[in-house]
Specification:
Bound molecules: 2-phosphoglycolic acid
Distance between the termini: 23 Å
Number of domains: 1
Oligomer: single chain
CATH topology: TIM Barrel
Radius of gyration: 17 Å
CATH superfamily: Aldolase class I
Order of helices and strands: EHEHEHEHHEHHEHHEHEH
CATH class: Alpha Beta
Shape: globular
Number of helices: 11
CATH architecture: Alpha-Beta Barrel
Strand order of the largest sheet: 1-2-3-4-5-6-7-8
Length: 253
């Protein structure tokens, strides 16, 4: 049985003080989250302060990006070892905003994933098609290419450190959510492909998250699908109450 996995991606939002306040509220609520994985991805500036607040709670903290080298003359960049030193256990790689706004291609993403795993970080690997690609019937080909290229250098043993987030680009920040059926169709194909490329056991235990305008109102129906194990939530993770409703999506309280 895969545990539900609810992740908040704050993107370029929140001061350190705001991030710490949110993390304190999450820490208080942590005892109610033991049957699920909960993660927040603050901006780099808030990582150390947030990991300090959440130490010992089991709540995960991710960076939103990393450089593929361990160190060097790369002004403005942050490496995997720096992220690990800040207390993070995860890093997001391949988000569509990185792919489209910052020109990251499959080859670079593969190097970043390798670098992250190499310094002990777990990876949330984002994939997904654009609207044009969906309308042209290319969704499964695009997702397959992103997985094959992005995970090129991984071995079966690495998959236990991997979470895949399927985020159709047309749904991110647009208010347009994929239907549970659309999400399930792609999630199931991702799991089948991972089984073929690695092993059935690795594919079976790997969480696959849905991302793209997920909100408190549609979380439960998405999560009801067999292969939707959780969410990577942008906008709706910024307010504590909204995020926490999604964390506790199937609970009465
Ligand atoms: P959204 O973002 O929930 O605001 O659509 C999701 C994401 O980009 O991870």
């Amino acid at each position: 049985m895969r545990k539900p996995f609810i992740a908040g991606n704050w993107k370029m939002h929140k001061t350190v003080a705001d991030a710490v306040n949110f993390a304190r509220r999450l820490r208080e609520a942590a005892s109610r989250c033991t049957d699920r994985d909960v993660l927040i991805a603050p901006p780099f500036t808030a990582l150390s302060a947030v990991t300090e607040v959440l130490k010992g709670t089991g709540i995960h903290v991710a960076a939103q990006n990393l450089h593929e080298s361990r160190q060097g003359a790369f002004t403005g960049e942050i490496s995997g070892p720096m992220i690990a030193e800040a207390g993070c256990d995860y890093v997001i790689v391949g988000h569509s905003e990185r792919r489209t706004l910052f020109g990251e291609d499959d080859a670079l993403i593969a190097r970043k994933i390798e670098a992250a795993l190499g310094c002990g970080l777990r990876v949330i690997f984002c994939i997904g098609e654009t609207l044009q690609e969906r309308e042209a019937g290319l969704t499964s080909g695009v997702v397959e290419r992103q997985i094959k290229e992005g995970l090129k250098t991984l071995r079966n043993d690495d998959i236990k450190h991997l979470v895949i987030a399927y985020e159709p680009v047309w749904a991110i920040g647009t208010g347009k959510t994929a239907t549970p059926g659309q999400a399930e169709e792609v999630h199931a194909s991702i799991r089948t492909l991972m089984g073929r490329l690695f092993s059935e056991a690795a594919a079976d235990s790997m969480p696959i998250l849905y991302g793209g305008s997920a909100k408190p109102d549609n979380m439960a129906e998405l999560m009801a699908e067999k292969n939707v194990d959780g969410g990577l939530i942008g906008g709706a993770s910024l307010e504590f109450d909204s995020f926490f409703r999604m964390v506790m999506f199937d609970r009465k309280d």
